[in-house]
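Study this chain:
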Amino acid sequence: MERAYFRRCTPSNVVATALWAVLTRRLRSQSYGMASRPVATPQCQRFGIAPPNQLRVNIRRFMKHRGLIQFALSGVVALLFCSCEDMQQQIQKPLAAILPMPTPMPGWWEDFGAHGDPRIVVNITEQKAYFYKGKRLVGESTVSTGKKGFGTPPGHYSVVSKDKNHYSSEFGDYVDSGGNVVVSNIDVRKDPKPKGAHFDPARMPYCMHFNGGYAMHQGYCPPYAASHGCIRVPEGMAVKFYDSAPVGTPITVKE
């Protein structure tokens, strides 16, 4: 029966196992092989322990090959993980902390021949937005909703206004007279303005307001919730949603 963690393992696991066996035999022969030779004292003969001079030689040999052993062990681990196509998320998540993970695709759009009223569904848990025309799903995009303390409120809304070149009245940076950022990513309602600085509003292209100050607009989209409550849509997908959603388009936000 297959184990739960790995399935469809490739032959490289066999290579890794053989490499491990060779390294183990080499380490034993170099580190402990001298202990079986005749030794100088009865105590050493009784317990099979190498005399001090031989121990020092063995230790130096071990230290000399330590780098090679560490490199080989790293290769074994890499083979074990890379040769298996399917791993459970319990294994993948710890690896994500130390290995670069592929950047998710921003989304897709295919509305050729689609008819019906448009609607948008945003899933906070998935960090995804879905665009429908009638009953047909015509587009899907990654999004970034409100982070902790600034959560995007679930509910049923509709697009109340649109602005292709919108600038925020609340979020942006404080900059000096030379255009240099003094304080970044500020909220004018909470963050005091330094002396001599002025407010530089954040750009929010393809903005669609749907609930007071909450809007769906183009912005930076990491694979997690990071906004101040708005729904950020990546470049390329924001224009698709904007052009296809007239004022009045229903927007459902769910967890």
